[in-house]
Design brief:
- The structure holds two protein chains of two kinds.
- By secondary structure, chain A is α+β, with helices and mostly antiparallel strands.
- In chain A, 17% of the residues lie in helices and 35% in strands.
- Chain A is globular, with a radius of gyration of 27 Å.
- The termini of chain A are far apart.
- Chain B has three domains: 2-19 and 32-56; 75-418, Methylamine Dehydrogenase, Chain H, CATH 2.130.10; 437-511, no CATH class.
- The longest helix of chain B is centred in the C-terminal third of the chain and has 39 residues, at 465-503.
- Chain B is an alpha+beta fold.
- In chain B, the strands form seven sheets. In chain B, strands 2-29-28-27 form a four-stranded antiparallel beta sheet. In chain B, strands 3-4-5-6 form a four-stranded antiparallel beta sheet, with no helix packed on it.
- Chain B has seven helices and 29 strands.
- Classes of the chains: A alpha+beta, B alpha+beta.
- Chains A and B meet through strand 1, helix 1 and helix 2 of A and helix 2, strand 1 and helix 3 of B.
- Chain A: Its main location: nucleus.
- Chain A: Belongs to the WD repeat DCAF13/WDSOF1 family.
- Chain A: It is found in: Nucleus, Nucleolus.
């Protein structure tokens, strides 16, 4: 006969010395783990609840300006530095890590309306309602710079009209200003090297394409979005919508797509090659969207609105993933995603810049590998059970300030009423005389080439 | 040739870890979803492969076995002959502890198999460490103890005593007195849900959450006094056996049993479940031991013999005991259970409870004269998982595990017959309208059935051929009527409404509500 029984010696399963790691043996047999799906579901539910518990997105406010913040710019070659310009003509460079002003750039006589930094991170371009474009030297070290303004100012160019916005080419030495027309400038020329004009209305914002350095998109007060190509002498395409577009942001990962922040509370994502229809309509804000900025990953973007909130959308999501608000934050005029996609900065009417986490419940600081694996596991189970009612309810819930909640309700009521009215009119008119128009199309009036 | 064998071996193992068939994505129209699901299936396949490989190459301990040579039979081997062949450490697992005064004894093991709890009927409670074979604590409560179970770890246990159930800690300190349970006959602990379930003398089944103290369920079985209560470890469904021969399966949140099966003619004496959840063994006073398939609720095998107590091992061996005799049954290729080993205690010892020790080739026996343990090669799972149940757990690991298990505590609603249903879609109940052909078919079937009814031979005069023929015709008419009336009734209603509308003056007709009354 042959007999063998299970025999374990304790030495094989316990550690030899007290400072060794405990020995772990694994057996993945499903029979040992009973009801594993129910356990996973409970873990997903707990993960969703913990997400809510740890959702503390607000990191801090940066105060220093004495008037509303009108524009911001991030430094492409320096992660920590952010520039902000205010309505009283003050420009500041902030250190995000310490949340302090590093240096100031005095000089503008009126409101600063546009800020941008050259690709090498050496030159800051500002423009404002005092009809000047100023080029500033950006300090290289992060220490506090005490040199006076005359040293920092490289050049100051006076032009014919007030400016509304400025943007620098991603690769190259040109920058474009928006005002009565679109002007293309070179760093070393005191006058624009080129000017574009299409219609008589003011151009509000301008943004260069990240992939193709010669293409730029502008939005105008005639409710238009125009795309220019610097290589041709005339503008390429124009799109007229029913309401004004306040700002435009190109998707850095899919550079043919851009998203427009519209006055009618929505954002519209377009394919620049196919403007007759929006790719996606991002709804949720209850007042005009003032500014928009894409995350460097291209998967989401942040918007700031006149309704005093900041929202984060998926690039293809119809509704926002996140809403940020505080009691003291006023109308948001400018927002920026940080260069590492983990922070969001907003500038508002209450003279403060605010720093937020891009993921509300993310743990800051150094994360140990075990912690990271745990977070990844929690994320995975949450993702697996996100469709179950209880998990879904917890994950979707966001506290809203009462005015915004009420305004949202009102907007929904209005939309419903309008839809009902249209349905009735359609029912009482000749068949085919009132064709249905999709939401992605019906805000667009015409496309001109 | 060998390579082929190797891959087959892996395939069998992979199947175990795949947890069912992969999803059928053929009919899916949504391309994006289809892509996502296909990726997911690929991931599942990869992880199952990795787990199978880990099982093949990384398992430390080998499974036990008992193989006869030549004309030897496995059930002829006595414990003494087995003891001569095995190593010294395993030989220590064979013991008889004679405590003649306070028996009969019941036994219970922790989920890791490290500790054993024994409870003598006359009030002796003891916890033993099975590695050192020393008692951790033993004390007497000077009261009848009917049953005792460990709670989630060896620190706490519950004992069903004469009047109430008590919870003690390892040091023997009484922590709680559970008066609501009454005079409990049998206790079971649901370790995923932290529920203590009990059945008492008045056949009330109770579920109490031991973390919060909340009484989750209190149900009257109304089937008479019973002390047969067993937990199905696969889905945490509690099963009770009754004197009428019925076996009921209960979940903590419903007052009626999920399943009620008539298993035996006569009282049920013992129930046990296979760890994979598909098999149930029941024993009755009708001298039968039955193996049931829990997916179809049908008997797979009926064995002759009495059993006071039954126990399935982790590897699927079934032990049955009656009097002082224990037999262990084995199945090969999941067909019938055959005799594997037998063991007879000293004459006059009445076995009260048997239980396989987890992760060891050991069967514990509680009997009227103390408790014993014998070696059953091939009964236990050789490889434990440190994160599930670790026999070599340190204090720190035990504390961490307690926290982890409490965080994963399942709600009582998650006890269900098929635990893989969590998070699945409920299948749509579509009430399809029968087609005309189907209705015709049914009608024909009903008429045929009415025709084939045999007429009983009645008393004189009543079975006249004319009367028989008339009766048959009546039956056929009746069968037809069911189908006719249904259709005509509907038509009539509709017609009535239309005529009502038409009777009104033309001006008023548009204002008649279209839905009717």
């Amino acid at each position: 006969m042959r007999v063998k029984v299970i025999s374990r010696s304790a030495d094989d399963f316990t550690r030899e010395r007290s400072n060794d790691l405990q020995r772990v043996s694994r057996n993945y047999d499903p029979n040992l783990r009973t009801q594993e799906k129910a356990v996973e579901y409970v873990r997903a539910l707990n993960a969703a609840k913990l997400d809510k518990v740890f959702a503390r997105p607000f990191i801090g406010a940066m105060d220093g300006h004495i008037d509303a913040i009108s524009c911001m710019a991030k430094n492409p070659s320096h992660l920590k530095g952010v520039f902000s310009g205010s309505m009283d003509g003050d420009i500041r460079l902030w250190d995000i890590a310490s949340r302090k002003t590093i240096c100031q750039y005095p000089g503008h006589q009126g409101a600063v309306r546009g800020l941008t930094v050259s690709t090498d991170g050496g030159v800051l371009v500002s423009c404002g309602t005092d009809c000047t474009v100023r080029l500033w030297r950006v300090p290289l070290s992060s220490g506090i710079d005490s040199s006076d303004s005359s040293e920092k100012l490289i050049a100051s160019y006076v032009w014919k009209n007030a400016f509304w916005g400025v943007d620098h080419q991603w690769e190259g030495s040109l920058f474009a200003t928006a005002g009565a027309q679109v002007d293309i400038w070179d760093h070393n020329r005191s006058q624009p090297v080129n000017s574009f004009e299409w219609g008589n209305d003011t151009v509000i914002s301008v943004r260069f394409n990240p992939g193709e350095p010669n293409i730029l998109a502008t939005s105008g007060s005639d409710r238009s979005i125009t795309i220019y190509d610097l290589r041709t002498s005339s503008p390429a395409r124009k799109l007229i919508m029913r309401t004004k577009t306040n700002s435009i942001a190109w998707n850095p990962m899919e550079p043919m797509n851009f998203t427009a922040a519209n006055e009618n509370c929505n954002c519209y994502s377009f394919d620049a090659r196919k403007l007759e229809e929006a790719k996606c309509v991002h709804k949720d804000h209850v007042s005009a969207v003032m500014d928009i900025d894409y995350s460097p990953t291209g998967r989401e973007f942040v918007t700031g609105s006149y309704d005093r909130t900041v929202r984060i959308f998926q690039y293809n999501g119809g509704h926002s993933r996140e809403i940020y608000h505080t009691k003291r934050m006023q109308r948001v005029f400018c927002v920026k995603f940080s260069g590492d996609a983990s922070y969001v900065i907003s500038g508002s009417d209450d003279t403060n810049l605010r720093l937020w986490k891009a993921k509300a419940s993310e743990q800051l600081g150094v994360i140990l590998p075990r912690e990271r694996r745990k977070h990844e596991y929690m994320e995975a189970v949450k993702n697996r059970y996100k469709h179950l009612p209880e998990v879904k309810r917890i994950l979707r819930h966001r506290h809203l300030p009462k005015p915004i909640y009420k305004a949202g309700l009102l907007r929904r009521t209005m939309a419903d009423a309008e839809k009902r009215k249209e349905d009735r009119r359609r029912a009482h008119s000749a068949p085919g005389s009132m064709p249905r128009k999709s939401v992605r199309k019906n805000r667009i009036i015409q496309e001109i080439e | 040739m060998e390579i082929q064998d190797f891959s087959d071996d892996i395939d069998v193992k992979v199947k175990k870890y795949q947890r069912g068939e992969s999803a059928d994505l053929e009919g899916l129209k949504d391309k994006k979803l289809k892509g996502q699901l296909a990726n997911r299936e690929e991931l599942y396949k990869k992880s199952a492969n990795a787990a199978a490989k880990a099982e093949k190459w990384l398992m430390q301990t080998e499974s036990g076995l008992l193989e006869p040579e030549g004309i030897e039979k496995t059930w002829r081997f006595s414990q003494q002959s087995i003891a001569q062949e095995v190593d010294v450490a395993s030989r220590k697992n064979q013991f008889d502890i004679i405590l003649p005064d306070l028996g009969p004894y019941t036994i219970d093991y922790t989920s890791s198999g490290r500790y054993m709890l024994t409870a003598g009927r006359k009030g002796h409670l003891a916890i033993m460490d099975m590695h050192t074979l020393k008692p951790v604590k033993d004390f007497q409560v000077r009261e009848t103890v009917r049953d005792a179970v460990f709670l989630h770890n060896e620190l706490f246990f519950a004992a069903a005593q004469k009047k109430y159930t008590y919870i003690y800690n390892r040091a023997g300190t009484e922590l709680h007195c559970l008066k609501e349970h009454g005079a409990v006959l049998k206790l079971q602990f649901l370790k995923n849900h932290f529920l203590l379930s009990s059945i008492n003398k008045s056949s009330h089944l109770r579920f109490q959450d031991i973390t919060t103290g909340q009484m989750v369920g209190n149900y009257r079985t109304a089937l008479g006094r019973s002390d047969v209560l067993q937990l199905n470890p696969y889905n945490s469904v509690i099963t009770s056996g009754h004197s009428g021969g019925t076996v009921c399966m209960w979940k903590p949140t419903t007052s009626t049993p999920l399943i009620k099966i008539l298993c035996h003619h006569g009282p049920v004496t013992a129930i046990s479940f296979h760890p994979n959840g598909h098999l149930m063994a029941t024993a009755g006073m009708d001298k039968k031991i039955k193996i049931w398939d829990l997916r179809t609720y049908k008997t797979l095998q009926t064995l002759p013999g009495n059993a006071k107590t039954l126990s399935f091992s982790q590897k699927g061996l079934l032990a049955a005991s009656t009097g002082s005799f224990t037999q262990i049954l084995q199945t090969s290729d999941s067909s019938n259970y055959n005799r594997y080993m037998i063991h007879t205690m000293a004459k006059g010892y009445q076995i009260n409870r048997i239980q396989f020790r987890p992760y060891e080739d050991v069967l514990g026996i509680g009997h009227s004269m103390g408790f014993s343990s014998i070696l059953v090669p091939g009964s236990g799972e050789p490889n434990f998982d440190s994160w599930v149940a670790n026999p070599f757990e340190t204090v720190k690991e035990r504390r961490e595990k307690e926290v982890r298990v409490l965080l994963d505590k399942l709600p009582p609603e998650s006890v269900m017959l098929d635990p893989t249903k969590v998070g699945n879609m409920r299948e749509a109940k579509r009430k399809e309208k029968k087609t005309k052909a189907e209705v015709e078919e049914e009608k024909a079937a009903a008429v045929a059935a009415a025709k084939s009814v045999a007429v009983k031979k009645k008393t004189k005069g009543r079975s006249k051929p004319s009367k028989v023929a008339r009766k048959k015709q009546e039956g056929i008419e009746n069968a037809k009527r069911g189908f006719v009336e249904e259709n005509e009734g509907r038509d009539k209603k509709k017609q009535k409404r239309i005529t009502e509308v038409n009777e009104l003056p033309i001006a008023l007709q548009p204002f008649v509500s279209k839905k009717g009354k």
